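Final paragraph of the annual report: two paired records, presented back to back.
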Amino acid sequence: MNKKKWLLLAALVIAIGAFYTLDGQQYLTRDFFQGLYRNDPLLTAATFFTVYVAVTGLSLPGAAVLTVVSGAIFGLVPGLLIASFASTLGATLAFLFSRTLLRDWVEQKFSSYLDTINRGVKKDGAFYLATLRLIPAVPFFVINLVMGLTSMRALTFSWVSQLGMLPGTAVYVNAGVQLGLVEELSLKGILTPSLIASFVLLGIFPWIARIAMEWVRRRRLYTRYDRPKQFDNNLTVIGAGSAGLVSSYIAAAVKARVSLIEKHKMGGDCLNTGCVPSKALIRSAKMAHYLKRANEFGLDDVSGQVNFTTVMERVQSVIRKIEPHDSVERYSGLGVNCISGSAQLISPWEVEVAGKRVTSRNIIIASGGRPYVPPLAGLEKIEYYTADTIWGLRKKPGKMLVIGGGPIGCELAQAFTRLGIQVIQVDHGTRLLHREDEDVSKLVMDQFISDGVDLRLQHEARSFQKVQDSNSGNERQFLEAGFKGQKVEIDFDVVLFATGREANTSNLGLEALGIELTKRGTIEVNDYMQTRYPNIYACGDVAGPYQFTHTAAHQAWFCAVNALFGRFKKFKVDYSVIPWCTFTDPEVARVGLNEQEAREQGIAYEVTKYGIDDLDRAIADEEARGFVKVLTVPGKDKILGVTIVGYHAGELIAEYISAMKHGLGLNKILGTIHIYPTLSEANKYAAGEWKKAHAPQGLLSLVEKYHAWMRH
């Protein structure tokens, strides 16, 4: 910071210190300025203007009071002129102080956040600032300081603030005028119609301003489109995955007219290529694994051969059995108009599909996601699979390369290993499931190594090569990877990419309508799941931030209800209790925070851990491994998050999900009867461990003395 900035900072500190030391607020009153006004009106106006500018420029409390006082002392028009120009000048000074003193430091420390704000200001800054000025949800001094950190021009800030604050200033000044007319603080003097009307206007102004700004915003958004005189549908849904199906179901249930558009298969990824087939595969793999463990259960001479083709056909059979739940026939019977084809947004109310246009009052985009395949060199030389296409595999490969150490990669790597395939799992991280705590990852990795998975961690995939083997004459294909500065070649027969997913946003007409995407490539939505157009919503994988079937269904409820009934009441989507499970063996289930996230967010916590290896039912089932780990508020039983690793962890976590959703602590779980012997007792024992650690030692000491006395 240069000398000029230090001097400016010192001057500001001295001025603010003087204000509080001398109790400056005692002078920001009607009585103080009224006494001056009788002697010299012009000097009083100049003094008042200077004080107002100083209070606003230094971000001191009292600007709202001064606005009311200006009306009481000077009257409506003079008071409005003084308050309006003084508040604008003061706000601009605060804006410039912030820019001069804080901007460089903020850019260094929080550049990514400031870049986001600057992009918004560049795109829609003046209107955004005007909205903030008209709807005083954010204190005005905060607006002044934050806007000083952006790239907005001072002149733009000044004139937009002047106009934006004018209506609110007028309301406050008018209230002051009416107060100034009250000669005595009696019930008769206060309860005048004009004064009551002023206070009513003061109270409802934010509501009126909000409605007005929403009307202006809609006009700006929709002005270049012709709104249909009537609509074919109340709701049109693009995509028949989990989010689209739930949205359509709700709309049909409340007797709305709804169309559901799907270009591929009903049920989306979850039914056809995701949750259902992967869990069917995992079940077959677990059975094969149990056959190998038969001697642990006292069974001799048990053998079994994996018929890989039959296993993969069984997966398809499971899909076919579940398909009717998501079929066109079922949803048509519910009253949903199911349309097959690719949908494209033509306007905020029109969707084109199969050469026809469908008009709709509201639209929900639920187009899902697809596997992400990194653009590695040589990719075009090989055939590869993703989590979407692997289900077409019928011939058992000798060696499978799985790239990715997240939930999908881990589930499939372990399953294929247990089905007799040699799996090499490659990931650039130091451990699998990097979003989970280290003790969780270690348990899973230990099991993977025991199963025979060839783990290649800290390997950076670089390129694929296909060459002629000089010895055998056969074609050889391999992945070239980097490992601690060394080049590594990994041979394979087939490759499975499990490197994440990306949203399906192309060819929907989003660009033409100016619907923004986030940095992650998902559609940007607000807390009500609305895009920039209030009647167009998005949910599921295409919207994020979570890519789970159950969160897609969760979001879909908010989309459907807000779209159909939002004019009466809108609901903000609730992400406070989001659970998930990775279906490896052992399973990893979580809800809320883990230790890693709590540390990153600076949240204080206590850890209570119970080892499932000590649980009677787990011992009886030969599944005595894993743990329940609960994070709580220090000294309290309030649950911040739970991680369960072990047999049926995905089922066990449900009790904690309910507890967190309804605000129940560990004492309530401990006080609930759990059936013996069941795995769910692990939840009770974890709560018991917390209770033991928080036992009132002083009271127990007194009780011990009491019992000793009673023995005499």
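The closing record of the year follows.
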Amino acid sequence: MSIRIKWFLANALVVLLLLGTLTLAMTVYSRDFIDQKIRENSRYSVSQLALNVDHLMQSYEQIMDYLYTNNNLQERLLAQYGSFPEAEQMYFETVDPVLQSVRGISQMTRLVFYTENPLFEFAGFVPIDEDVKRSDWYAAFRANPERVKIWWPPRQDAFRHQGNFRLTQRLNNLNEDAELYVTMDLDVRLFDNLIANENKRHRFIVTLPDGSVVLDSHRSETYGANLRDYDFADRIGQADAGSFRVRDGEDSDLLIYQTLVGRSSVRGMKVISLIPEDELIANANEIRRIAVLLLCGAVALSIALIYALSLGLTKRLTKLASAMRSVNTEQLKPMQGMKGNDEISALGRIFNGLIDRIDRLIKDVYQSEINRRELELRTKESELYALQTQINPHYLFNTLTAIRGSLLEKGDKENAETIKLLALSFRQVLGKSGQVIRLQEELETVDTYLRIQRFRFGERLSYEIAVPEAYRGYAVPRLALQTLVENAVVHALEQNENPTAIVIRAEEEAGGALRVTVADDGPGIPAAALAEIRRGLDEAAPTGEKHIGLRNIHQRLRHTFGPDYGLVLDSEAGAGTRVSMRLPGDRHGDGQGGKQDG
């Protein structure tokens, strides 16, 4: 098993155990937290419902209080009238406007006054007769004279075919013994609007102080129902608030209740809420499902990250091992892309440093060998130069002149001219001293050489020397341009049956350097061969016998003038060849600064 797999499995196992433990702990904590929050929210909902019930009932009690404190109304209702028209006039002037303003209240189905005055035969007035005296509300007021208002449980109205619950009020503000009462019947659906839509699944029960049920959201009718009829009544007891679990068969509910302790008319009313246990379980299950999804996502992400990290680490180790295996004396390349500050990156940097040091040592050895060979080459050049100086040019020139005279006597002017040019060529070559001469002198040698080649190739060779006088004083290595022209003759003219033109130009570059170009329209050089020649120019030592002349000129230019100068080759197959020498603009054939007139 590779180190990558071992490292990956170990980290994945650790992450899985940690995330699993964390998820389990968070699930248990979240479930308890959610259950506690649901209980708190449910208690808040019950408290809010109780407050709303209290405010709703208080709003209708305030209407009764308005009638109770309206002394002018009570005085007119308690007064004695001599005739019905007199009572009727009082009714329409005083009582009816008040009643009209009260009867338009929402959810109120009926408002009735009970009085002992027989002349009040108006709508909404009922005389207190024997039937009224036998009613529950009348008996309750008579049994407890101190009670001012009483709420009564819902009853079904036989005439209206709807359920009502009643609020009764004694109007005895002016006279404590007055037999004057008012009843207000309200629609039993009054409390339905107090239950929020999101709580429709919860069961709400509202009871009066005597236990009578005025609202049961899961029952369509509550007529005659009482709190003691429910199984959980004994567990509620007399406590003001509380909660406990209620089980009914397979169903289980959380019961929360609160008792109203405000005004005497509603003191003892209870608001009860039953929340299904399956809703709590559903929330817990949802938390568990989300936790599992988060666990799976976290595990997947962690495994992906661990894999990416293991791949990054082991990939660099593999790369380092591969680089170590591939090290040889011919390819000492440092590793690329070793980023970071960890131990693997440190090993990579140490390896790169080691490769750099080995490469420098090898280069030092090669450079020593190159210097040794260059010294040998210079020694040979010095010997050649010494040998050249030992040749007696006068003897050579006199001999060639004698041959030319003999040819002229015989009338062979063409060969005599050739001998003349040959003698001139030797004079130009052997008569100059030094490694650097003026471009003008080099051009004279080239011109003589090309004139000789004209005798050899005839019309197949044409040439042009287009070098302005201003550039002819520049310095050039001796016989450098001569060698380029010879290459053009050998490789362009001799290997081509078609006529060949050779052009020598000079132009100044933007930086002040002088470019001298030998161009031909011969067969050109293939791309692969051109690339090989270019690579050979910068080789420290020749690897073969080809293109030694070009390499020597390039190396002489760089050795004489610096690394920015040398040969530049351009060629295309079938489109000729252009070889250029880059010469410095501040170096001249006299060895002094400034230009030298040619």
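Residues 591-598 have pLDDT under 50 and may be disordered. This concludes the annual technical report; the extension proposal builds directly on these records.
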